[in-house]
Automatic annotation (TrEMBL):
This is Phosphodiesterase. It comes from the Bacteria. Gene3D superfamilies: Alkaline Phosphatase, subunit A (3.40.720.10). InterPro entries: Alkaline_phosphatase_core_sf, Phosphodiest/P_Trfase. GO terms for molecular function: hydrolase activity. It comes from Rhodococcus wratislaviensis NBRC 100605.
Amino acid sequence: MTVSAPPLDVYSQPTLSTLMPSVLASLGVAGEPNRLHLPDSRHTVVFLIDGLGWTLLRRHREHAPFLDSLTGRPIRAGFPTTTATSIASFGTGLPSGGHGITGYQSYVREVRGTLNWLSWRAGHKGDELTRLVPEVVQPAPTVFERAAAAGITCTTVVPAKFDGSGLTRAVLRGGTFAGIHAYGDLIAHVVTAARSGERTLTYCYLSEIDTLGHVYGPGSESWLHQVALVDRLVERLAAGLAAAQPDTTLYVTADHGMVTVDDADKIDFDATPALSDDVVALAGEPRCRHVHTRAGAGHDVAARWRNELGHRMWIGTRDEAVTAGLFGPAVRSEVQGRIGDVVAIAQGGVAVVRRKAESRLSALPGQHGALTDDELLIPLLQGTIT
């Protein structure tokens, strides 16, 4: 079976890696491209809501009347559509081939295993912060370092547990860290940060919509209630900013969307020899797999995956995926090995799971990582606080 054409030219349209350089340009930072044509601002708040895809928000707009009232348009998350990669693209202004966080999990030669970028752990061992120093893994200046160098007061308002984490150090360093414990914290810290200097950039983040989407599926009753609560939170935040710093620009975005995958559409890698033969490591996540093979077996493994799943997934070799621009216009040499010898991207309602080795991840109905509109498109909403 011949390889099908790549799913799409991901970076032919603005992505999450475009957003923060545009924000910096709007704040007056020289040399930053404003591809999104954002208006000038002296105080900007960017609120990233994990898992709130554009099509999901539009489909359930009656549950989010305040968000629906904001001026908005879709942009793309980038590839793959997963939190670690998207947060890295957000924080650096680079596609995954530039910042090196190539998926939810990547095979990393330095630790001789598959690393979860969110926890910075390989398997059940402790974190790899010593062997895999975040500032070395991702050496490019973050958008917050670039903003601070230009005299902008930067604050990162995220759950307190992320203080000093590998991902925070790698892609969000450069601002003052303000850890939160609940929604009230978020409003209080963001409002304080927005008025903390002549020019301010404040980033805030919430994860609960993503959590409930994974556990129950996007569009489930629990998910819809969470969307309604977050909508009210953003409305309260806007009101707080209006009272404290009325010339603030508020942007609301996300890191990816989500789809529901039925259990019958989950293929167990470990129980399918056509998929597991000659494979030494399986990284990524169920809807976007990085398949690392024994030396010289890449093309044979790709052929078997195409025969098994080619009607439901795009299957390409590493070279084909890189040439297609899936990881951006350039891939750093040290990042090449974090891309699978074979890359498999779901095109329909399918997922490649490991029911024993990744039992919790495999059981979740809500999944993402691929390039369907429900996963790829994210909102860029704008509210000018007056």
